[in-house]
Structure formats: C-alpha cells, structure tokens
Amino acid sequence: MAESQGPELKIPDPVEMSRAMARIAEHSQRIVSEFLSRHAEISGSADPLNLGGAFLEMTSRMMADPARLMQAQVSLWQDYMTLWQRTTQRFLGGEAEPVIQPAKEDRRFKDSAWNENTLFDFIKQSYLLTARFMQTTVHGVEGLDERTARKLDFYTRQYVDAMAPSNFVMTNPEVLRTTLETGGENLVKGLENLLSDLERGKGQLAISMTDYSKFEVGRNIAVTPGKVVFQNDLMQLIQYTPTTEQVFRRPLLISPPWINKFYILDLRPQNSFVKWLTDQGHTVFIVSWVNPGEHLSDKTFEDYMVEGPLAALDAMEAATGEREANVIGYCLGGTLLASTLSYMTDQGDDRIKSAMYLVTLTDFSEPGELSVFIDEEQLAALEERMRSQGFLDGSAMATTFNMLRANDLIWSFVVNNYLLGKDPFPFDLLYWNSDSTRMPAAMHSFYLRNMYQRNLLVQPGGITLKGVPIDLRRITVPTFMLSTREDHIAPWKSTYAATQLYGGPVKFVLAASGHIAGVVNPPSAEKYSHYLNTKLPASPDAWFEGAKQVPGSWWPEYGKWVARYGGGKVPARVPGDGRLPALEDAPGSYVRVKSLE
C-alpha cells in the first residue's frame, strides 16, 4: 500500500468541541451584557463619518457620465474573460500568464497555494481585478472637491481590504489546510482569542497585536537607568544615569508626542535612542506625559507648553545648574516644540540652543490620509464624544492610525489570531503601539481644528499662546529635521515645508522606512538608509533629486550635528545630586497607566 501523502487529518472530537462551544457561549454572554450596559445611550448621529453624503455625491456624478462608467465595466468584463480563459487553460494542464499580480509588498497572498492551486489563483486574481476596478472607478470620478475625493478613496480601500479572500475561512488556502489538519481546533481557538480581545477591550474589539504577557514597562522595555526628578499634572521628567565620565555641558531634553508613550525611544537597550544618546555623552532628560483622565479635560495646548517643555527647562536648570539646553521634539512633541520656541523668542528667552524635529508637521496643508478624519461633521461628532467623557479614548486614536495600514495592522492579525488560531508573536514595537493614551478634550479639539483643519500654526499670528501671537518665522536657533520616506502620519514632503519657514540654519535629513521604524533605527542594526543634501530648494522633489543616499542609521549624523551645540564637556551629573531630589526610578509611574484600565 502506498504511503499517504500530505499531513494527517484530525477528526474533531464532538465532546470536546461541545464543551469548548459552551465555554465560548458563556463567555460571549458576559461580554455582550457588559458591552450593552456601557452603550445603552445611542449616538445622536446615524452617520458621524458623513460617508453617506460623500458616496451619494460620488454616485450622482458617476451616473452623470454613464459612458465612462460603461467603459470601466467593459474593461473589467474583458479582464474577467481573459482570466476565465487562462484559468481554463491551467485546469487543462497548460501554462498561463496571470492577468494581474499582487504588489510585491502585499503579504496577504504569500502562501504558495495562491499561485500553485488553480482555483485559489483564480480567486486571488478575481479579487485583485475587482479591487482595481472599484478603486480606479472611484478615483476617476470628476467634479468632487479634494477632501471628499480623498475620503472616498480612503474608505473604498478600507472596504476592498476588508473583503479580501484571505480574510475568510473558505477562501484562504492556509486557513483551510490548517482547519483540516487540526479538525477545526484553529477556529475554536480563534473564537476564544476573539472573545478574549473583546473582553480586554470591555466590549470593544481590541485586536491583540503581540503577546502582552511577554513585556512589562520597567522590566524588559523602558529599562534605561534613571530617576524621575520632577512632576506636575501633565508630565514626569526623567533624568537618565550617565554612562560616560564626561558629558556635554548643555543637557538634552526630549519632548515626545502624548498621542503615544515616550518609551518608543527606549524600547530595549539595543534599539534605545535614549541609551544611545547617553552613551554619546549627553545628559538626557525626557518628558513622560500623563495618560489623562476626565479631571484633566480642560487642559489646553497652552497648558502642555507651560507644564511641558517650559517647566522641564526650569527643572533641568535646578537639576544640573545649566540654564541652556538642546531639545528634540517627536511628532506632536515637535509641533509643540516649534510653538514653544516661537513663544520663547517673543519673550527673549534664549535657553534652547538647538532644536531637532523628528517626523514633525508644522504646515498641515497636506497632512496625508489623516485629513479624511478632519471634516466638520467628524470633528463635531468627535467633540460631542469627548464632551461626554472629558477625553478621547486611546483606542479611538489607535484605530485611526491602524486604518492607515489596515492590511498590516488589522487584517493580518485577524487572520493569524482568529482564523489560524495562533497567538501573536512577541514584538516590543507592537506592544508599545497597543499601549495607547488618551487626549484631553480641550487640547485635542484645539489641535485638530487650528492645525489640521485650519492650518493656522504656519500663519503668522494664526494662534496665540499665553497672549503671544505665534510666528514660526522668528525661530532662529539651529534646526535639524528628520523625516521618513514612507511616513503615513507625517508625510515627508509636508514636513519638508518647514525648511522654508524657520529663520535660522536648517539641516534636513530623510530616512528610509516609516514614522516609527525609520526613527527607531540604531546603527548596530545596519538597516535602511538615509538621504543627505546640503541645499534646501523650495521643492521637496528637487531636494530628493540632489540628495545622496547613505547606508544605515541617521543617528550618527545627528550625533555629529548636536555635538557642535553641546557647549564643551563637564563631569557627569547623577540624577538626584542637584537641587532636585529623585522622586522614583525611571520609567516612573505616569507611563504605567493604561487606557483600558
């Protein structure tokens, strides 16, 4: 008798299966009850995203040009006919070139069966043809205003991504194979994973991106030694323990975004920007923002300036005896830094001697796909939601950012966790990405309306902080700007606009990869590259055409640049030895507060 080919199939045990389903049913009832009790009050808006109106307008304009629509449908039909013919050819044992191929970076169809099995190859190509038809048809509608067109493109892509055959049991060959091999245990385990995620989100689906049990802040991430030396309502200030006998005289302050937690810059020793800076001889301070609750709902953008970088500079002087400092701002922390520098310039405050902006927007005229969330209807709905609880919940921000890369940050985990029944892989960056933060209602509304919606920060006197009209053109301190080429949150061509804005010398560096990976790229990793150009033409495309590509991390480039503003060397300072006593060990208590608690 010939040996059987392929994996052994496992027949489901009906008793075990019924017990598992009973556990799931009981679990489900409890979660659903909790969810319903928390959402008893129905929202007053049936369409807070205002998608209905946008798609209605698109449909009316599409039907006004029936010839173009018919042409697109005929083209799709011809593609389908070609696909049928080539699929039939393969079924009969012949070879056939594919009609359409997934993009090289599309990992949804990496399983070999998508190419080797004729049926699944047909399913894959049918989906890709339909997806292309939908997206090009929507994109080609004429007469729509730019904001509406961008929203339609974005949400059409969300729909297309959601309907991919890889997301369903019966049309994903890897899931089908696993189901047969395990007797359906993968689906049972997947359902249990789904319910665990619903429970973790208290009724809202909080997709697990990593094994959260493998990480703990202060134990194996955010472990660079240091002390909290100052705190107020909005932040704790951490001073890190020196690793060199001599340090630069001017300390270095990092102002991270408060949309996420600061330890993206201090994940593990091997990829910690904080530790690397300390090893270069800097006295490093970092702001650890509070995870605000309802009692901080009235905190404003101005409060973040006063209780953030301004308070930190005062505290750093008390801790080190040094009045002057170099400062780094990351994303929203960089937007705050630019605003603060303009305010300080008006006040004659020259304590900041150099400014470094990591993937920072100041000109919001082209904010990328985030603009689809910033129309008046959505902002009004968001403000109403924040008004009821005093803050924007961290999960809402996380979902927004994940939607920008839905296949990587949503659907890949749906397939892995719920269809294949696997536990997610431990990954420090994804643990940080899931450790979301809240946003105070007053501050967040000001930020979205005045910067994203009205683009007032770039306009001289467009916004006022502490009675001072903000004018970024008056900033004359030396500036280092780092942007990333594949950034979905702060598009590099938009961040580049600030090179034409600041009054002092500017150095612009473009790193490969995206908003996070392009920043957290230590030299030891020997990954990616960065681009340098000493000239700053008005056009970002012209800058890139004249840029030189340099292998590896951009960190050493910044290290050389900031050393020029270090103010010479002095003996190392130990946290707590100055006029500020140590309050607790780094990373402090503020960073440990969870949004889901």
Automatic annotation (TrEMBL):
Coiled coil: none annotated. The keyword Transferase applies. InterPro entries: AB_hydrolase_fold, PHA/PHB_synthase, PHA_synth_I, PhaC_N. Pfam families: PhaC_N (PF07167). It is found in: Cytoplasm. Residues 105-277 form the Poly-beta-hydroxybutyrate polymerase N-terminal domain. Keywords: Acyltransferase, Cytoplasm, Transferase. This is PHA/PHB synthase family protein. It comes from Rhodocista pekingensis.
